[in-house]
């Protein structure tokens, strides 16, 4: 039972390069989320997808784009990476919007931008 | 905007001690509150979820309480063990899809 799988686990980029972080869940969940975790800041929501075919901005969406490819997959793209985007990125999923069900998290992607 | 605070930032206790972790939030109009555990280099694992209409939830040695009117939640850990060492985070949800996290309390249980 894989749960939420994120790839890659680690990545180093140069400023200005682009990259897509991948996330897939096998729990048939409707809602998926992208967070970033920075020291002293806690987790902050970047984008979320309440259901297949919909995406919405979270607290810190600038510099990112997302695609809900299908019910299983939700990707996060950095078009022109900046050092301020150095962070640990987490993907999460839950059964559906408005339901009192916990989020399930992947193990994260550690991204460094030089 | 919802602000979530966790105090203390770090806590060290001897094995066997009972302990309380604190979480406070600024806007009482929440949908639910969750407590998570995060081990180094890993993602978050959900421990307990309290709906806005509930006062507490229990799972094994863990008990979480919620006082919406005062904007507070506590996580009580009974008979702490070295395996409980981790960072504990709380998160509140306003509409069901916007989640606001605290910065966590790093717990070390000394054998």
Summarize the structure.
The complex is a heterodimer of chains A (114) and B (111). Chain A has strands at residues 4-7, 10-13, 19-25, 31-38, 42-49, 56-57, 65-68, 74-78, 87-94, 104-105, 109-113.
Question: Strands, helices and their partners?
Answer:
The complex is a heterodimer of chains A (114) and B (111).
Chain A: E1 4-7, E2 10-13, E3 19-25, E4 31-38, E5 42-49, E6 56-57, E7 65-68, E8 74-78, E9 87-94, E10 104-105, E11 109-113
Parallel strand pairs in A: 2-11
Antiparallel strand pairs in A: 1-3, 3-8, 4-5, 4-9, 5-6, 7-8, 9-10, 9-11
Chain B: E1 4-7, E2 10-14, E3 19-25, E4 32-38, E5 44-51, E6 56-59, E7 62-67, E8 72-77, E9 86-93, E10 99-101, E11 105-110
Parallel strand pairs in B: 2-11
Antiparallel strand pairs in B: 1-3, 3-8, 4-5, 4-9, 6-7, 7-8, 9-10, 9-11
Structural class of chain A: mainly beta
Shape of chain B: globular
How far is it from the N-terminal to the C-terminal residue of chain B, by CA? 41 Å
Query: How big is the Rg of chain A?
Result: 13 Å
How large is the count of helical segments of chain B?
0
Strand content of chain B: over 45%
H and E string of chain A: EEEEEEEEEEE
Helical stretch tally of chain A: 0
Number of DSSP strand runs of chain B: 11
What quaternary form is this?
heterodimer
Q: How much is the average pLDDT of chain A?
A: 93
The profile of the biggest β sheet of chain B is: 6 strands, mixed
Which range best describes the helical content of chain A: under 10%, 10-25%, 25-40%, 40-55%, 55-70% or over 70%? Answer: under 10%
What is the 3D form of chain A? globular
Please state roughly what percent of the residues of chain A sit in beta strands, choosing from under 5%, 5-15%, 15-25%, 25-35%, 35-45% or over 45%.
Answer: over 45%
Main β-sheet description of chain A: 7 strands, mixed
Helix content of chain B: under 10%
Distance between the termini of chain A: 36 Å
